[in-house]
Amino acid sequence: MSASCAQSGQNASAYCGHTSTRFCAQSARMENANELRDAVKSIRERAGLSVRAMATHLGMSPSGYSHYEQRIKDKSLPPKIAASIAKVVEPLGVPPEEVYELTLGEIRDSATFSSIMPNRVDTGDPAPNGQALVPVYDVSASAGFGALVDYEEQTHSLAFPPDYLKRLTSSPPQNLAIISVKGESMEPTLVDDDIVLVDMSKTHMGFEGLFVLRHNDTLLVKRAGMAAKNGHVMLISDNKAYPPVEAALADLNVIGKVLWYGRKV
Predict the structure, then answer these.
(1) Residue 205 belongs to domain with CATH number
(2) Which among 8, 118, 202, 219 is least surrounded, fewest beta carbons within 10 Å?
(3) β-strand 245-248 against 2-4: which pairing, if any?
(4) Which among 164, 18, 163 has a CA at the least distance from the CA of 103?
(5) 79: CATH
(6) Cβ-proximal residues to 236 (8 Å cutoff; 6+ apart), any chain
(7) Structural domain that includes position 211
(8) Residue 12 in contact with residue 120, Cβ under 8 Å?
(9) For 177-224, what is each residue's pLDDT tens digit?
(10) What's the pLDDT tens digit per position in 83-109?
(11) What is the pLDDT of residue 166?
(12) How far is CA 80 from the centre of its chain?
């Protein structure tokens, strides 16, 4: 999935967010991933939607959505997906609280969900109520994300609740940046037009998770895996239709680690 520009016209308050590492409250509601998959399927069926129809409503491919009914291995639903599904099924007669319950306490209702979401702040405006401002950059893949802070235009900022941002990273805001992503190679984790929060102080690919990196002048969001050759790494897509790519570490410019991603709902 190549990373592209975060459009200045996007309404950041309409994004639901999720960490790339889960922060889940304990709950006994979902005993295993099978129960979660069955619950997601039941909600869709009660709303009278096919897999394709639900995927269309969520802005995902049918394969990407099917991950949550067939392949997800967690016992809880990511808040960003829960909020999106709740918005779709509520007008069709399914109470949104039933969807929120599948997050195992991360969100309880729409008010809880809104309280942890970042808000858009125009460049130059102060942060509201002491919140931490993270810049959003207008970055194109061909421009080269490595020059982001010095040369790329900041279109606006997102204001994060300080306690929420501290859960994500100890890095100061000047080490953080937000861009958007394009393509389907990282579905279902990331879909087209998601935004990602990048910690530019974490450039060692020994960290587990997603990375923003430049390879052959192309900006990518990928996972890193071990390669057979010394000095090489496997660039892994979450969408199994995209095979891993072996790359020499010397040919990579690692920009940073993805800490959080958001999606319009």
Answers:
(1) 2.10.109.10
(2) 8
(3) unpaired
(4) 18
(5) 1.10.260.40
(6) 222, 223, 224, 225, 244
(7) 2-13+117-264
(8) yes
(9) 998 888 888 888 887 778 889 999 999 887 678 899 888 878 888 998
(10) 889 999 999 999 998 998 887 665 555
(11) 80
(12) 8
The four Cα atoms 163, 166, 172, 178 give a dihedral, to 10 degrees, of: -90
From first CA to last CA, the distance across the chain in angstroms is 21
pTM (2 decimals)?
0.63
Number of domains present in the structure of the chain: 2
Outline where the chain has alpha helix (H).
33-46, 51-58, 62-66, 79-89, 96-100, 110-115, 148-151, 162-168
pLDDT at 12: 37
Q: How many CB atoms lie within 10 A of CB 206?
A: 6
Nearest-angstrom CA–CA distance, 203 and 148: 15
Average pLDDT taken over every residue of the chain: 78
For residue 84, what pLDDT is reported? 87
Residues 240 and 198 in one domain: yes
The residue behind tokens 């958007």 is 180
